[in-house]
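tool_call predict_complex ligand=guanine
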Amino acid sequence: MSAEILDGKAFAAKVRAKVADHVGRLKAAHGITPGLAVVLVGEDAASQVYVRSKGKLTVEVGMNSHTHKLDVDTPEVDLLALIKQLNNDADIHGILVQLPLPKHLNEALVINSIDPAKDVDGFHISNVGLLGTGQKSMVPCTPLGCLMMLREHHGSLSGLDAVVIGRSNIVGKPMAQLLLGDSCTVTIAHSRTRDLADVVRRADIVVAAVGRPEMVPGDWIKPGATVIDVGINRLDAPERGIGKTRLVGDVDFASASAVAGAITPVPGGVGPMTIACLLANTLTACCRANGVAEPEGLTV
Ligand code: GUN
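tool_result ok
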């Protein structure tokens, strides 16, 4: 069997087009332009790439983009003061502090200082609690993107066995909550899980989010299962030339795609959905802040 490839790049483009359409209507009908502020502390190379990409795509969907770049040794009080200023700015509807932060900054304190209504990452403790209790919240972007792709492929997820490999606050835990919300039977597996292969073999849906290159082989996958690979791991690829690298997921694509019913590739799977969902969340936050109807299908 050869799996259907779930094209996240194309799906993300559709989500962004839908966001752009709604932004156009918000402007025309209400004179409101959603604004997203992204805060980057330090010079982490990967973070710089993500932040640039976020800014570019924010402008492309017709929103205002504000990027704040702070020195690596910025004192915590200065970062908290900036967040307070953004919280109080009516033109800013979404605030994202790029992670990881430099070690001297208290990540939980910083995240929890963001106004929950503007927390487009869905990392604030209030949003975590709202999601966990099935209430309206801001939903973390990567899990939201995964859920959108799963719903698009399956229609209903009700009653399916889902395994999430990885228990991070950014992906694993919120992903499990979302799958539970869609009535899956959910297992969260992690580095201490006994007989991970056996656990994964029972799953109709596998979401791999561990950050270990190609750790899930095809013979762990139940024939016909849907595999969502959240991993983005850069490996050296000397066969491509000196200093060259290649991206791989947490799943061994070659063997898994021979068994699965559907699978997301890396790159071009979940990755592009994350920023599309960030834009969707910013639009959702803007609509809620202004008491305007939210677009359908862009959040849970
Ligand atoms: N770093 C890696 N992924 C993310 C994310 O989804 N949000 C933020 N703020 N930082 C990240």
